[in-house]
Amino acid sequence: MIEGTILLVGCGKMGGALLKGWFAQGLSPVDVMIVEPAGRAGVESAEEHPALSVLSDASELPSDFTPDAVVFAVKPQAAPDVMPAYARFAEGGTVYLSIIAGLPSSRLQGFLGPDAAIVRAMPNTPAAIGHGMSVLYAGETVGPSQKRVCKVLMAAAGQTAWISDEADMDAVTAVSGSGPAYVFLLAEALTEAGIAEGLEPALAAQLATATVSGAGALLDAESASADVLRKNVTSPGGTTEAALKVLMADDGLNRLP
């Protein structure tokens, strides 16, 4: 259950996905305020929630407003111009949750001040349907209750995990943040292979989509690891084994046992 007041800065695809998840978790529209340059027209949930406050600029925020959390969901190139306007909330005990890719805590503190409580999070695009994976890192100034707030906010979009070394965020980005693109490429390749073998494009796409999504669901549901599930599908001397030998060749995926 999400509690407290939330200020969401930027309501694009990822910000909008988080907002949708928060509402699904019971957050009241009166407990969230949004700053979105496009105004209400840029917030997909605005029409559904008339009580939702949407501002176009930080200068429109009430002078007596101090949120429990400020969530930054803006593009990295916009951060230097956007973030300093929210530095005043640090004195009120607000925690800053940044889902801006590529900006380390040191740069974020440069925008918000050395005493700002900052948590970085790296979600991925399945967050849009509540099946995301978000990895979080908390700076030294972040307290236990502030960490809990950030965990709950990101859990509304899917699974969460913490890292203790911010340097690991680069690997997280490569595996989880960019990972959906690799899976989508696999689905594309399967579709194209089916078409090349004579299948109708619609059927090839259906087979590829169902196979990728079904395999992912099975991996999530089973306690067995990915390598065990792979071996379960691979009959000795069969077509799957032959295909995997090609994929695992020196010029393909890494060789696996």
Overall description:
Helix 3 (105-112) links the parallel strand 5 (95-98) and strand 6. The radius of gyration is 22 Å and the shape is elongated. It has an eight-stranded mixed beta sheet with strand order 3-2-1-4-5-6-7-8, sandwiched between helices. It starts with 5 loop residues before the first strand and ends in a 10-residue tail after the last helix. By secondary structure, the chain is α/β, with parallel strands linked by helices. The relative contact order is 0.09. The model has no long low-confidence stretch (mean pLDDT 92). The chain folds into two domains: 6-177, NAD(P)-binding Rossmann-like Domain (Rossmann fold); 179-247, ProC C-terminal domain-like fold. It has helices at 13-24, 79-82, 105-112, 144-155, 169-177, 179-196, 201-221, 226-233, 239-247, and strands at 6-9, 32-35, 53-55, 69-72, 95-98, 117-122, 132-138, 158-162.
Summarize the structure.
The chain is an alpha/beta fold and 257 residues long.
